[in-house]
Design a protein that fits this description.
Elements: H1 3-23, E1 35-37, E2 62-64, E3 70-74, E4 77-81, E5 96-100, E6 103-106, H2 112-119, H3 139-153, H4 162-169, E7 233-239, E8 262-266, E9 282-286, E10 295-296, E11 298-302, H5 306-330
Parallel strand pairs: 1-11, 7-10
Antiparallel strand pairs: 2-3, 3-6, 4-5, 6-11, 7-8, 8-9
């Protein structure tokens, strides 16, 4: 056997090894819901033996997980977090620079169908259909959902950190008031209380639906994320604090040392007026509390750099095999 043939066979073997990990992120959409995210681990194989899907900044723009949740890639970057319009409260200050690593985030709020597939129950007040967002879930409930989802498909999920959530809602850190990419709230694009009594200088008058709507019922922002403002509040991983003094600058979750801290939720809901802009749209409540049909579930997952290595190996292998067979044909 000559050297060329040996090289081709070796590369083919490498392709067969690398291709499953590489192509797992292609041909399907990568999905992480607004209500959560994937926890980052140093090792790629978890204690339970699951092998997480390998993705990176140069990989798939989206993917779909084992229960059909779509995740879209959010490229990392730095931005000014907080009340950049000087229109809010003290707990939205000081405005501070935060740098966020790339991650995948659920394109939609977690639906009632998806939640029931994992948890076996649908706690929602507005039990209107499979594509409506699940609500009446506490922060503690979200942790159980995330753990069970991980056990099902091996991917590392988590709620988004507050910095990740705001960065994504502002289309990669732009100076924006609302999660649809606009500075003026329009009831045609955001599900909130758009009645005349609640009009603000940055909102239009329109329909007040008085309930949730389907997760895909409005246009997404430029990152492909739906309902980042309105419909249901969205839990974050962070504890609630009275302001941003001392907040992490790396986009990680800011968790207090309290045994049962209040947790952050963002974005406003179907029952809120347009004051729930991106900077002002957050509160802190106890982790075990449920609010009346308001709180939903987003999810995120990290980008694994190992995907880049595997993709590079795979691409070179396929190229070398192609060249080898072209030469064989000529012979």
């Amino acid at each position: 056997m000559n050297l060329t043939a040996l090289l081709a066979i070796s590369c083919l073997a490498g392709c067969l090894f690398a291709a499953p990990a590489v192509w797992a992120g292609k041909g399907a959409s990568v999905i992480v819901s607004h209500s959560g995210g994937v926890r980052k681990k140093d090792n790629l194989v978890e204690e339970d033996g699951h092998q997480p899907l390998l993705l990176n900044d140069e990989g798939a723009d989206s993917f779909t997980n084992s229960i059909g949740m779509k995740f879209v890639k959010i490229a990392g970057g730095c931005f000014q977090m907080g009340d950049t319009f000087s229109e809010g409260d003290d707990d939205e200050t000081p405005v501070h620079r935060v740098c966020v690593a790339g991650f995948y985030m659920g394109a939609y709020e977690v639906t009632q169908q998806e939640y029931k597939a994992i948890m076996g129950v649908n706690p929602s007040r507005f039990n209107s259909g499979d594509t409506y967002p699940v609500e009446l879930v506490s922060w503690d409930d979200t942790q159980q959902f995330i753990e069970k989802l991980h056990n099902r498909d091996g991917l590392e999920y988590s709620l988004p950190t507050e910095a990740q959530w705001e960065y994504a809602a502002r289309e990669g850190g732009k100076k924006l008031r609302f999660g649809d990419g606009k500075d003026c709230a329009d009831p045609a694009r955001i599900n909130f209380d758009g009645s005349k009594d609640h009009q603000k200088k940055y909102s239009h008058i329109g329909e007040y639906r008085g309930k949730t709507v389907s997760v895909d019922s409005v246009a997404p922002n430029s990152l492909g994320l739906y309902h980042m403002s309105g419909n249901v509040w969205e839990w974050c991983q962070d504890s609630w604090h009275e302001g941003y003094k001392g907040a992490p600058a790396d986009g990680s979750a800011w968790v207090s040392g309290e045994e049962n801290p209040k947790r952050v939720f963002r974005g406003g809901s179907w029952d809120d007026d347009p004051e729930r802009r991106i900077p002002n749209g957050f509160f802190g409540v106890e982790a075990g509390m449920m609010t009346r049909g308001l709180c939903g579930l987003p999810i995120v997952t990290p980008i694994h750099l190992m995907y880049a290595v595997l993709k590079l190996v795979s691409d070179w292998c396929f190229l070398l095999v192609e060249v080898f067979f072209k030469f064989k044909i000529r012979e």
